[in-house]
Amino acid sequence: LPLTYKLPSGDDIPTVALGTWKASSEDVGAAVKAALEAGYRHIDGAWVYGNEAAIGQALKEVEHHVPRESLFITSKLWNTFHNPDDVEATLDETLAHLQTNYLDLYLMHWPIAQTADFKVDWELTENPIRTWKKMEEMVRKGKVRNIGVSNFNIRRLQNLTASDITIRPAVNQVELSYWNPQPELVSWSKDNGILLEAYSPLGSDVLVGKTLRLPPVRKIAKKLKITPAQVIMSWHVQRGTVVLPKSVDGGRISENYQTDLFNELEAAATAHRPHRINDPSSHWGIDIFEDDKEDDFH
Ligand code: A2P
Q1: ipTM of this predicted complex?
Q2: 178: annotated active-site residue
Q3: pTM score of the predicted model
Q4: Contact indicator for 108, 132 with CB cutoff of 8 Å
Q5: Which of 76, 4, 16, 14 is nearest to 45 (CA)?
Q6: How far, in Å, from the CA of 198 to the mean position of ligand 1?
Q7: How remote is the CA of residue 245 from the centroid of ligand 1, in Å?
Q8: What per-residue string of b and e applies to 76-87 under the rule 16 or more CB within 10 Å gives b?
Q9: pLDDT tens digits, one per residue of 35-73
Q10: Which CATH class is domain 4-273?
Q11: Is the pLDDT of residue 298 over 50?
């Protein structure tokens, strides 16, 4: 399986990254070091995870044998900083926390702009062009090498890419798992040259146990003499997406880095009714994904 994909900028993006959402500041440093030891060079973070300073500290401690240039570091612009006047300051804070002067990838974390008191800014949400232009400026300034989005559906991406933008989104980071495989988004993204990144690839903490016990997953694992988690990672890479497994355990981090070749899972994953795990729509007062509601999942 490929170890990297090519981005439109020409940069190589490693196919497997360490996910750091829900990793505490206490745990994340050791997780990052374990990941680098296992061979990972791609770390996926975000301002809102609140652990970027701990990640930066860990990277600093190993920089003599893992130089910055060998790493691919991603962070994300939080909803409350979509106002163009706020973008550079929050990016600078992320850079300071990570102790670096550039990011490899900066994503708009959600297609939702919020005011400081968490009300939806409808104008900036429906027309994110002004936020995007500021992100483009960060590329020109050398603070960011690639820009993209996260949690965008097809309509919102079409809306953004139909505007007068200079740099197209290189990636869209979305929830992709056995439970929410989004085949339509996968094929649309492929056709439109936008790389997908799979977050919660194991089904997140809520469904990981269930995922790893799935009969088709166990069957493939047995046949290939790999673990169920490795079957899942391999499936994502075979679908052509980056995969972002989160773990704070050295053994599991190392396990998740190994991928293998087969193609028997896609049909099973797309045969059942999809279930989205992460959807703050009701909490934020806006229908983020605009997809069918599925409440019959147990
Ligand atoms: P932990 O951090 O203790 O390893 P996802 O990547 O889909 O968000 O899933 C993350 C969840 O899956 C976390 O609860 C994580 O716990 C657990 N996890 C990660 N890798 C493995 C693995 N190889 N085997 C079992 N559980 C795992």
Answers
A1: 0.99
A2: no
A3: 0.97
A4: yes
A5: 76
A6: 14
A7: 7
A8: bbbbbbbebebb
A9: 999 999 999 999 999 999 999 999 999 999 999 999 999
A10: alpha beta
A11: no
